[in-house]
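The protein record minuted underneath.
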Amino acid sequence: MQCYFHGKVFDQRDILKKGNGIVSFSIPDVGIVFKAKYKGSTKECEYASLLALLEFIELNPQLFKNRGLEIYGDSLVVVHQVNMRMGCNGELESFRNLALNYKRKIHYTLNWIPQGDNPAQNYLLE
């Protein structure tokens, strides 16, 4: 089953600045779309989106039983850090470690997708 996550901060001038943002995820096969406000940096919002999706999967196992999980996100940093292909700084390390803890409980693959192809960002209004 394919699942998608996306995080965005509305003030994009400084990607390290904490600002008002949105976290979202989409699971088209079961018609699930989630979005919520989040305050943090761009990378924190992207991680928070992945973690919200993973928590939803953990809390709703009946929807995912006997199905392989392919998770896609448009954040190269999040995908590469969780897949251990890129180092992780102290500020994002706790987010990455939470995603890795979920990986021990839930078998999923994590892949990058271009932002324009990510259905999780289709429902965001600025």
Observations:
- Residues 2-121 form a domain with the Nucleotidyltransferase; domain 5 fold (CATH 3.30.420.10).
- The radius of gyration is 14 Å.
- The CA atoms of residues 80 and 86 lie 5 Å apart.
